[in-house]
Amino acid sequence: MADFVPSAYRNSTSSPDWLNKGDNAWQMVSATVVGLQSVPGMVILYGSIVKKKWAINSAFMALYSFAAVWICWVAWAYNMSFGEKLLPIWGKAKPALGQSDLIAQSTLPATTHYFKGGDVVETPMVSPFFPLATMVYFQCVFAAITVILLAGALLGRMNIKAWMAFVPLWLTFSYTVGAFSLWGGGFLFHWGVIDFCGGYVIHVASGVSGFTAAYWVGPRAQVDRNRFPPNNVLLVLAGAGLLWLGWSGFNGGGPYSANVISSMAVLNTHICASTSLLTWTTLDAIFFGKPSVIGAVQGMMTGLVCITPGAGVVQGWAAIVMGVLSGSIPWYTMMVVHKKWSPLQKIDDTLGVIHTHAVAGVLGGITTGLFAEPVLCNLFLPVTNSRGVIYGGVGWYQLVKQMVGASFIIGWNVVVTSIICIVISLVIPLRIPDEELMIGDDAVHGEEAYALWGDGELYDTTRHSDEYNMPQVGVLATGVTQNM
Based on the number of CB atoms within 10 Å of its own CB, is 171 exposed (0-12), middle (13-18) or buried (19 or more)? Predict the structure, then answer.
């Protein structure tokens, strides 16, 4: 009977010899929960945190991005991020679709690290004990959520057709550069900049690019800027909960193994997020008299973002310190600096991603440069003997590296995102026309989120037909429209 059992199942421990089934299972589960952060997590959060008339459009921006990134990723973008080196910031573009590659052991060929740039290998090439198919899957969901987070700055006014063009262009010319430079074997990887699981590659990039794109797209309608209440706060919490728990896979999958660093990363993630949420909520209660549910979600997010660059290389007490900082510094930039500094007010960043992702991501990278623990660093990083400032020695140099890494990601994303927006604007208007901005989902998609009366619902004969020169329609009690 054994002769009829496929060879992949005959060995109970590994098949082939290099495969570690525990690592492969953990990596696939991690990828799946990160994917759930986007679909349905961010779909629910975006669809609920905006005004009712923009619920469909906002949710759809996230849903479209998830699908579009998948096709671009396997067609060319994966190898630009993790394949053979083309430039110090880029890998060679090619598909990740062939069977012979996908069932072979996963390797990141540009990651072999040589001692001080010489011929002596300091840290071998990254070669996880699972197939390339798993690596492509895991990295794809990271790329997808990055673009979705970026969309948070553009909700409520970006032309959906322009967004459909923006996603593949930004993924190709922005995300792949950050991913290769810091993770895939690029110059920042070999220099020893620490970005454990995306504080720079994902959050600084999405925050800066979202803010930059918001400048080029232009603001929402003034009525929306003046009043933009969430249409369902309870569903905002549901989406936020998927994000929070999904971060276990986000940071826990960073070491590409179900190992001790993975355990540290998951623990630190929840310590920092909890501390940050409590800090933000406390500040809201002290200065505004009431704790805000949306504020608590913002504090949760900044804590998750802040811990991400150093999740597996800092100690638990440092995660608490980082949580206090991430719950207070982005709170200050959002609630005080943004309201007093006119240049920030002129750019309509719908969900404040410049604060929750860019500020919190840079903060996380800098505090990682302060608190990175030497023993934990040596378990994970290609550059041995890395350490944070508080551990003496060359720790000060690590802080310099972290600041340079953040500067590179910020500069690249400002320039490339601007170029992409300008190019798209030559073909497709970036912003929804003003008359459609007043309507919302029904004008853009011909659909509405809720069969309830409110802004964005189909026009009746007395209120809107003359003002907007729309066909006269009536609304029946059933919600079905009928020409009058």
Answer: buried
202 touches 142 (CB < 8 A): yes
Give pLDDT, residue 344: 87
Does the bond joining 471 to the residue before it have cis omega, within 30 degrees of 0?
no
Measured between alpha carbons, how far is 329 from 77 in angstroms, rounded to an integer? 35
Q: What is the pLDDT of residues 277-311, one digit of tens each?
A: 999 999 999 999 999 999 999 999 999 999 999 99
**H-run or E-run covering 400:** helix 395-425
Round to whole Å and give the CA distance between 466 and 410.
47
How many Å apart are CA 12 and CA 16, to the nearest integer?
Answer: 11
DSSP 54-121: GHHHHHHHHHHHHHHHHHHIIIIIHHHHHSSEEETTEEPP-----HHHHTSBP-BGGG-EEGGGSSSE
- How far does CA 47 lie from the centroid of its chain? 17
Cα–Cα distance for residue pair 178/174, rounded to 1 Å: 7
- Going by pLDDT thresholds of 50, 70 and 90, the confidence category of residue 8 is low
Q: What length is written for the chain?
A: 484
What is the C-alpha separation between 69 and 65, in angstroms, rounded?
A: 6
- Look up the pTM and report it: 0.89
Under a CB-based contact definition with an 8 Å cutoff, are residues 204 and 361 in contact? yes
The proportion of the chain whose per-residue pLDDT surpasses 90, expressed as a percent, equals 83
Q: Please give the pLDDT value at position 20.
A: 94
Whether residue 312 contacts residue 377, with contact meaning beta carbons closer than 8 Å, is answered with no
Please state, in angstroms and rounded to a whole number, the distance separating the CA atoms of residues 177 and 171.
9
Question: Is-contact 276 305, C-beta < 8 A?
Answer: no
Q: Are 448 and 463 in contact (CB under 8 A)?
A: no
As beta bridge partners, residue 201 has none
CA distance 116 to 400: 17
Tell me: the pLDDT tens digits for 459-482? 444 444 343 333 333 333 333 333
CA distance 423 to 425: 5
Q: What's the rounded Cα separation, in Å, for the pair 189 and 386? A: 13
Question: Per-residue DSSP letters for 244-262?
Answer: HHHHHHHHHTTTSSSSHHH
β pairing state of 481-483 and 121-123: unpaired
CA–CA distance, 401 with 193 (Å, rounded to integer): 5
Average pLDDT over residues 209-226: 95
Q: Percentage of residues in the chain with pLDDT exceeding 70?
A: 90
